[in-house]
Amino acid sequence: MPDHSSFSKNRHGRFRQSDILRHLFETVVERCLVQGLVGAEGFAVDASLIAADANKQRSVSGAEWSAQEAKENAGRSVQEYLAVLDDAAFGAASPVTPKFVSPSDPAAQWTGAHKGHAFFAYATNYLIDTDHGVILDVEATRAIRQAEVGASRTMIDRTENRFGLKPGYLVADSAYGSADNLAWLVKEKEIAPHIPVFDKSNRTDGTFSRANFNWDGEGDRYICPAGKELVQFRRTYATPRSGITSEGTRLYRASKKDCDACELKQRCCPNAVARKVPRDLNEDARDVARAIAGTPDYERSRHRRKKVEMLFAHLKRILRMARLRLRGPCGARDESLLAATAQNLRRLAKLRPSRLPAAMTA
Ligand code: SF4
Description:
The chain is of the alpha+beta class. The chain folds into two domains: 15-196 and 293-361, Ribonuclease H-like superfamily/Ribonuclease H (Nucleotidyltransferase, domain 5, 2-Layer Sandwich); 210-280, no CATH class. The chain has helices spanning 4-18, 20-34, 67-70, 76-83, 145-163, 179-189, 256-260, 265-268, 283-292, 296-304, 306-317, 328-351, 358-361; strands spanning 42-51, 60-61, 100-101, 109-111, 119-129, 135-142, 169-171, 192-194, 214-216, 221-223, 229-230, 249-253, 276-280. The strands form four sheets. Strands 1, 4, 5, 6, 7 and 8 form a six-stranded mixed β-sheet that branches. Strands 9-10-11 form a three-stranded antiparallel β-sheet, with no helix packed on it. Strands 2-3 form a two-stranded antiparallel sheet. Helix 6 (179-189) packs across helix 9 (283-292). The structure holds iron/sulfur cluster.
């Protein structure tokens, strides 16, 4: 028997350098492909929080912790974090200083996303095929939405490059429904987004929301509930203007004359001279997602999305991976890869015999 230290030395040394765990994971995915368990009609993506091996009592406030100071006497997990400071899945995911940082595992994110007690966590991200729930890719990231959305793109690209698979649709929850992400799916990847639109334009004070204004794409204008038009420009400028605001939107304005004489003004813009409606540069991608929502295909794919949630429930309850045993981004990645490999092997074992010819299973 090898000495116990051989396992950890190999894991930190030659296993990581050779990327053997990813190779193992992808080999199992290939077996699933060969067995016909992946239809690639639709994929589902989601993330789940896994508690990190980091203690709140030993944490410091985010404002006090500095990467520069941590460089001196940095342990392995800190060195790993410093190496991914510019990585979109970790350091570059958000410029916001976290409330607390664990000096022993600074990549772990202090999060209250479970609505209960806040804790240090990583996110494990799964991209699955919705036919049989085979995990096609897995990625460990910081436990924040921006990193999780970035991971979904990384996994879709990697699955296409590695296995030549691109889905007809992607199903996900509203965390993935920003205009920017929908535009990437619709325009760049040509994947139908079965995703609820992330839209904060609904007003709660009783005045008309943007949804009450009808978009006329051909005329490049909105039509208000009173039937008047809202346009970007009401005169021609000697130097043409882009009309794009610093928030990446175009502003459509009603005319003061129309609004002054309008019976609906109190329900529309009681505190402004005329109504303005902003339109995101990628609103057309949002419109594609809105048009898909509510269709029978959408309802079917929403139901199929539950497979990814069931995999996370299995991961935590049966495989007991509610808390990571290893620290640092590489530890989170290794554990996520191993767990996803085990889940795929289980799926392969469960589904494969019924697909083999009777003579081979006898
Ligand atoms: S207030 Fe102006 S924008 Fe609003 S409904 Fe009346 S005319 Fe249309």
